[in-house]
Amino acid sequence: MPRWNYENINYEEINKENIKNNEFLFTLLAIASFIEITSDVYENNLKRFYEGDKQITNWLEEIWEIEEIQHGKALRKYVESVWSDFDWGEAYKNFRNEYIKYCTIEEFQPSRAREMLARMVVETGTSTFYKAINAYAKDLNEPILATIAHNIHKDEVYHYEVFNKGFLKYNETENLNRKDIIKVIYTRLKEANDEDVATAYKYIQSNNDFEAFHKNLKKLAKNYYPYKMAVKMLMYPLKLNRYIENVTASTIEGALRVFGI
Ligand SMILES: [Fe+2]
Ligand SMILES: [Fe+2]
Predict the structure, then answer these.
(1) In the chain, what are the domains?
(2) Distance 67 CA to ligand 1 centre (A)
Protein backbone atom coordinates (compact mmCIF):
# COMPACT_ATOMS: atom_id res chain seq x y z
CA MET A 1 0.00 0.00 0.00
CA PRO A 2 1.36 3.45 -0.86
CA ARG A 3 2.17 5.58 2.19
CA TRP A 4 -0.29 8.25 1.09
CA ASN A 5 -3.22 8.57 -1.24
CA TYR A 6 -3.73 11.64 -3.40
CA GLU A 7 -7.48 11.15 -3.19
CA ASN A 8 -7.32 12.09 0.49
CA ILE A 9 -5.79 15.48 -0.35
CA ASN A 10 -8.16 18.36 -0.03
CA TYR A 11 -7.81 20.01 -3.40
CA GLU A 12 -10.77 22.30 -2.66
CA GLU A 13 -8.64 24.07 -0.08
CA ILE A 14 -5.94 25.22 -2.49
CA ASN A 15 -5.18 28.92 -2.12
CA LYS A 16 -5.97 29.56 -5.77
CA GLU A 17 -5.75 33.34 -5.44
CA ASN A 18 -2.08 33.07 -4.50
CA ILE A 19 -1.03 31.08 -7.52
CA LYS A 20 -3.52 31.17 -10.38
CA ASN A 21 -1.57 33.90 -12.20
CA ASN A 22 1.73 32.15 -11.67
CA GLU A 23 2.40 30.89 -15.20
CA PHE A 24 5.78 29.50 -14.24
CA LEU A 25 4.29 27.33 -11.50
CA PHE A 26 1.59 26.09 -13.84
CA THR A 27 4.14 25.10 -16.48
CA LEU A 28 6.46 23.49 -13.95
CA LEU A 29 3.76 21.33 -12.36
CA ALA A 30 2.23 20.35 -15.69
CA ILE A 31 5.67 19.24 -16.94
CA ALA A 32 6.27 17.23 -13.76
CA SER A 33 2.84 15.59 -14.04
CA PHE A 34 3.54 14.54 -17.66
CA ILE A 35 6.88 12.97 -16.86
CA GLU A 36 5.74 11.21 -13.69
CA ILE A 37 2.63 9.72 -15.23
CA THR A 38 4.69 8.20 -18.04
CA SER A 39 6.59 6.02 -15.55
CA ASP A 40 4.84 2.92 -16.89
CA VAL A 41 7.16 3.08 -19.91
CA TYR A 42 10.26 3.18 -17.70
CA GLU A 43 8.89 0.45 -15.50
CA ASN A 44 8.56 -1.84 -18.51
CA ASN A 45 12.08 -1.12 -19.67
CA LEU A 46 13.54 -1.57 -16.19
CA LYS A 47 11.70 -4.84 -15.75
CA ARG A 48 13.19 -6.13 -18.98
CA PHE A 49 16.64 -4.96 -17.93
CA TYR A 50 16.48 -6.74 -14.56
CA GLU A 51 14.65 -9.80 -15.84
CA GLY A 52 15.15 -12.81 -13.59
CA ASP A 53 15.64 -10.69 -10.45
CA LYS A 54 12.21 -11.18 -8.96
CA GLN A 55 12.96 -9.06 -5.91
CA ILE A 56 13.60 -6.01 -8.09
CA THR A 57 11.02 -6.64 -10.82
CA ASN A 58 8.25 -7.27 -8.28
CA TRP A 59 9.14 -4.11 -6.43
CA LEU A 60 9.20 -2.11 -9.67
CA GLU A 61 5.81 -3.42 -10.62
CA GLU A 62 4.01 -3.42 -7.31
CA ILE A 63 5.47 -0.37 -5.60
CA TRP A 64 7.71 1.85 -7.67
CA GLU A 65 5.45 2.22 -10.70
CA ILE A 66 2.34 2.73 -8.59
CA GLU A 67 4.01 5.44 -6.53
CA GLU A 68 5.45 7.24 -9.55
CA ILE A 69 2.12 7.22 -11.33
CA GLN A 70 0.43 8.51 -8.21
CA HIS A 71 2.86 11.45 -8.32
CA GLY A 72 1.63 12.16 -11.82
CA LYS A 73 -2.02 11.86 -10.88
CA ALA A 74 -1.65 14.06 -7.80
CA LEU A 75 0.03 16.78 -9.87
CA ARG A 76 -2.48 16.44 -12.69
CA LYS A 77 -5.35 16.92 -10.29
CA TYR A 78 -3.59 19.93 -8.80
CA VAL A 79 -3.04 21.51 -12.23
CA GLU A 80 -6.62 20.85 -13.28
CA SER A 81 -7.98 22.24 -10.01
CA VAL A 82 -6.18 25.56 -10.39
CA TRP A 83 -5.84 26.02 -14.14
CA SER A 84 -9.08 24.50 -15.37
CA ASP A 85 -8.76 26.02 -18.88
CA PHE A 86 -5.82 23.75 -19.61
CA ASP A 87 -6.76 20.61 -21.53
CA TRP A 88 -4.41 18.24 -19.74
CA GLY A 89 -5.65 15.08 -21.51
CA GLU A 90 -5.16 16.41 -25.02
CA ALA A 91 -1.74 17.97 -24.33
CA TYR A 92 -0.54 14.80 -22.58
CA LYS A 93 -1.65 12.56 -25.43
CA ASN A 94 0.50 14.54 -27.86
CA PHE A 95 3.44 14.69 -25.48
CA ARG A 96 3.34 10.96 -24.82
CA ASN A 97 3.38 10.15 -28.54
CA GLU A 98 6.68 11.94 -28.93
CA TYR A 99 8.23 11.18 -25.57
CA ILE A 100 7.93 7.39 -25.60
CA LYS A 101 10.22 7.28 -28.61
CA TYR A 102 13.07 8.48 -26.39
CA CYS A 103 12.43 6.00 -23.60
CA THR A 104 14.33 3.03 -24.90
CA ILE A 105 16.32 0.35 -23.16
CA GLU A 106 19.30 1.31 -25.35
CA GLU A 107 19.68 4.40 -23.21
CA PHE A 108 20.42 2.27 -20.18
CA GLN A 109 23.86 1.78 -18.67
CA PRO A 110 25.90 -1.19 -19.87
CA SER A 111 25.52 -3.22 -16.65
CA ARG A 112 23.05 -3.83 -13.85
CA ALA A 113 25.09 -2.19 -11.09
CA ARG A 114 25.69 0.83 -13.29
CA GLU A 115 22.01 1.20 -14.12
CA MET A 116 21.20 1.09 -10.39
CA LEU A 117 23.59 4.02 -9.95
CA ALA A 118 21.91 5.86 -12.80
CA ARG A 119 18.54 5.32 -11.11
CA MET A 120 20.01 6.75 -7.90
CA VAL A 121 21.00 9.88 -9.82
CA VAL A 122 17.47 10.18 -11.19
CA GLU A 123 15.90 9.72 -7.75
CA THR A 124 18.34 12.27 -6.32
CA GLY A 125 17.07 14.67 -8.96
CA THR A 126 13.41 14.06 -8.21
CA SER A 127 13.68 14.00 -4.41
CA THR A 128 15.60 17.27 -4.34
CA PHE A 129 13.30 18.84 -6.93
CA TYR A 130 10.22 18.18 -4.79
CA LYS A 131 12.00 19.44 -1.73
CA ALA A 132 12.54 22.70 -3.59
CA ILE A 133 8.86 22.76 -4.63
CA ASN A 134 7.86 22.19 -1.03
CA ALA A 135 9.86 25.23 0.10
CA TYR A 136 8.59 27.32 -2.82
CA ALA A 137 4.96 26.39 -2.05
CA LYS A 138 5.41 27.42 1.56
CA ASP A 139 6.70 30.79 0.41
CA LEU A 140 3.69 31.12 -1.87
CA ASN A 141 1.53 30.35 1.15
CA GLU A 142 0.05 27.32 -0.57
CA PRO A 143 0.00 24.48 1.98
CA ILE A 144 -1.78 21.94 -0.24
CA LEU A 145 1.01 22.03 -2.81
CA ALA A 146 3.55 21.95 0.01
CA THR A 147 1.94 18.75 1.33
CA ILE A 148 1.86 17.07 -2.08
CA ALA A 149 5.50 17.98 -2.73
CA HIS A 150 6.50 16.71 0.70
CA ASN A 151 4.76 13.36 0.13
CA ILE A 152 6.37 12.94 -3.27
CA HIS A 153 9.76 13.92 -1.89
CA LYS A 154 9.52 11.18 0.75
CA ASP A 155 8.66 8.57 -1.89
CA GLU A 156 11.60 9.60 -4.07
CA VAL A 157 14.03 9.28 -1.17
CA TYR A 158 12.68 5.81 -0.51
CA HIS A 159 13.15 4.86 -4.19
CA TYR A 160 16.72 6.10 -3.97
CA GLU A 161 17.31 3.83 -0.98
CA VAL A 162 15.94 0.76 -2.75
CA PHE A 163 18.07 1.42 -5.84
CA ASN A 164 21.06 1.86 -3.53
CA LYS A 165 20.44 -1.61 -2.12
CA GLY A 166 20.23 -2.93 -5.67
CA PHE A 167 23.50 -1.23 -6.52
CA LEU A 168 25.26 -2.79 -3.52
CA LYS A 169 23.92 -6.22 -4.45
CA TYR A 170 25.07 -6.07 -8.08
CA ASN A 171 28.33 -4.41 -7.23
CA GLU A 172 29.34 -7.43 -5.19
CA THR A 173 29.96 -9.12 -8.52
CA GLU A 174 30.72 -6.12 -10.73
CA ASN A 175 33.15 -4.49 -8.30
CA LEU A 176 32.99 -1.01 -9.77
CA ASN A 177 35.70 1.24 -8.41
CA ARG A 178 35.33 4.93 -7.59
CA LYS A 179 36.40 5.99 -11.04
CA ASP A 180 33.72 3.79 -12.65
CA ILE A 181 31.12 5.10 -10.21
CA ILE A 182 32.00 8.74 -10.85
CA LYS A 183 31.82 8.11 -14.59
CA VAL A 184 28.27 6.77 -14.34
CA ILE A 185 27.12 9.57 -12.06
CA TYR A 186 28.69 12.17 -14.31
CA THR A 187 27.24 10.80 -17.56
CA ARG A 188 23.80 10.40 -16.03
CA LEU A 189 23.90 13.95 -14.72
CA LYS A 190 24.84 15.20 -18.14
CA GLU A 191 21.91 13.36 -19.69
CA ALA A 192 19.61 14.86 -17.09
CA ASN A 193 19.61 18.10 -19.04
CA ASP A 194 16.43 19.53 -20.40
CA GLU A 195 15.38 17.01 -23.01
CA ASP A 196 12.40 15.68 -21.02
CA VAL A 197 11.48 19.10 -19.79
CA ALA A 198 11.80 20.80 -23.17
CA THR A 199 9.66 18.14 -24.84
CA ALA A 200 6.91 18.50 -22.24
CA TYR A 201 7.14 22.30 -22.42
CA LYS A 202 6.30 22.27 -26.13
CA TYR A 203 2.96 20.60 -25.47
CA ILE A 204 2.05 22.80 -22.53
CA GLN A 205 3.05 26.22 -23.79
CA SER A 206 2.59 27.46 -27.32
CA ASN A 207 4.77 30.53 -26.74
CA ASN A 208 8.03 28.87 -27.73
CA ASP A 209 9.81 30.73 -24.96
CA PHE A 210 11.58 27.86 -23.28
CA GLU A 211 14.54 30.12 -22.56
CA ALA A 212 12.46 32.33 -20.28
CA PHE A 213 11.09 29.29 -18.50
CA HIS A 214 14.59 27.95 -18.04
CA LYS A 215 15.70 31.24 -16.53
CA ASN A 216 12.89 31.01 -13.99
CA LEU A 217 13.88 27.45 -13.24
CA LYS A 218 17.40 28.61 -12.44
CA LYS A 219 16.00 31.28 -10.17
CA LEU A 220 13.92 28.66 -8.38
CA ALA A 221 17.02 26.51 -7.94
CA LYS A 222 19.01 29.43 -6.61
CA ASN A 223 16.42 30.17 -3.97
CA TYR A 224 15.19 26.74 -2.99
CA TYR A 225 17.28 23.89 -4.37
CA PRO A 226 18.83 21.76 -1.58
CA TYR A 227 22.32 21.53 -3.10
CA LYS A 228 23.88 20.02 0.00
CA MET A 229 21.36 17.23 0.06
CA ALA A 230 21.89 16.56 -3.65
CA VAL A 231 25.65 16.39 -3.22
CA LYS A 232 25.36 14.04 -0.27
CA MET A 233 23.07 11.69 -2.16
CA LEU A 234 25.18 11.72 -5.32
CA MET A 235 28.38 11.05 -3.42
CA TYR A 236 27.02 8.40 -1.13
CA PRO A 237 27.92 5.41 -3.36
CA LEU A 238 31.55 6.55 -3.37
CA LYS A 239 31.90 5.77 0.34
CA LEU A 240 34.41 8.53 0.87
CA ASN A 241 35.82 9.49 4.21
CA ARG A 242 34.85 12.84 5.69
CA TYR A 243 37.95 14.73 4.59
CA ILE A 244 37.74 13.77 0.92
CA GLU A 245 34.00 14.25 1.07
CA ASN A 246 34.37 17.88 2.07
CA VAL A 247 36.86 18.57 -0.69
CA THR A 248 34.80 16.80 -3.35
CA ALA A 249 31.46 18.22 -2.25
CA SER A 250 32.22 21.72 -3.46
CA THR A 251 33.36 20.39 -6.85
CA ILE A 252 30.15 18.42 -7.30
CA GLU A 253 28.05 21.32 -6.08
CA GLY A 254 29.73 23.47 -8.73
CA ALA A 255 29.02 20.83 -11.38
CA LEU A 256 25.37 20.69 -10.37
CA ARG A 257 25.07 24.42 -10.84
CA VAL A 258 26.71 24.18 -14.25
CA PHE A 259 24.16 21.55 -15.27
CA GLY A 260 21.52 23.98 -14.14
CA ILE A 261 20.22 21.59 -11.53
FE1 LIG B 1 8.11 10.53 -8.88
FE1 LIG C 1 10.99 7.99 -7.78
Answers:
(1) 16-258 (1.10.620.20)
(2) 7
